Amino acid sequence: MDPRQVTQAPSANTQRGFTFIEVLLALLVLVSASAILVGMQSSAISRTIRDRNAQQAMLFARRVMSSIEVAGKGAPQQNIENQPAISIMETYGIPQPTSDLERKAIESLRVTLLVEDFVLPLPNVAQDPMKKWTMRLQWGETVDDFFVISYLMALN
After folding, report:
1. Ramachandran quadrant class, 95 (left: phi over 0; alpha: psi -120 to 50; beta: rest)
2. Looking at the whole model, is its pTM more than 0.90?
3. pLDDT one-digit tens code per residue, 47-58
4. Helical H runs in the chain?
5. 100 lies in a domain?
6. Dist CA 151 CA 132 (whole Å)
7. Residue 104 falls within a domain, yes or no?
8. Sign of dihedral through CA atoms 132, 58, 113, 134?
C-alpha cells in the first residue's frame, strides 16, 4: 500500500476556521469604517442645510435691495435693528411669500439695515448725494450663520 494514499482522520489541530481574534479584528474594521461614513454623511447634511439657508438669505436680500432701488428716494431710509424678515417686507412693500416653503425659509431670518450718507473721496469733483445701505442677515446662532452686504444708490 502506498503511504501517500493513507488519509488520516481530521484532528482538532488540522481543522481550518477563523479564530476569535480574527473575527474581532474584522468587526473592529467594519465598525470603524461605518463610523467614518456616518460622520462624513452628517457633515455633508449640515453643510447642505447651511448653504440652503445662505441661499435663501441672499435671495431675500436681493428682493429687498431691488425694491429699494425701484422706490428710489421714496424708500424708507430709517435704520432697522434686528427685525424679522416679514416686517422688513411690510416696511418696503415687498409682496408676502406665496408658498409655505418660501415662508418657512425666511421666517428664521433676522435683518439689520443701516442707511447712511455716502460721499466718494474724490477731491474737487461735484458729486450727487448717495446713500449706502448695509444689510446684515442672520439665520442662526453660529458665526457661519450670517452675512453682510452693502449697496450704494445715487439719489438723483
Report:
1. beta
2. no
3. 898 888 888 899
4. 20-71, 85-91, 100-106
5. yes
6. 6
7. yes
8. negative
